[in-house]
Amino acid sequence: MIGVQSLLRTPDGAFVPVLEADPGDLDEYYLAGAIDLEINGTQIIDTEMWDYVDQLWAYICTMLQDLRSSGTSRTYFPDQPIELKFERLPSSLVLVSIEAGDDIRKVSVDEEELVERLGCAAKEFFQDMNSLLRQDRYSGELRKIDSILRQ
Fold first, then answer.
1. Reported pTM
2. 135 has a pLDDT exceeding 90
3. Nearest-CA neighbor of 78 among 115, 35, 119?
């Protein structure tokens, strides 16, 4: 089971769901936030790992494409030395791992479930951001996600 939620960081350091954020408090070019990602009972990403959340979602979408094409992908967070990796295993599983200094977390999950759940969560994030900002700012990312989900 995969639980995922996109959060934006408020000026006072709290985290709120995207549509609960005040657009006036956001820096559209440096969008601070976090992805809360739990896979099969293992907390992979949490609010302690906050960063530029729109960039991180874009990186994760690229990771999903790379996973589909080559069976492995990795990225660093936009502004932190945190490495996220996806590695295809036998039996349609993917090893998801994250390394943040001495904190290393790993879990395996069904590849189709991972791609579907993260793809849908990314799509929801970018759609919600377009709505919140009242712009069509993330149309390229949305086209990319649709392509990933059709594979």
1. 0.95
2. no
3. 35
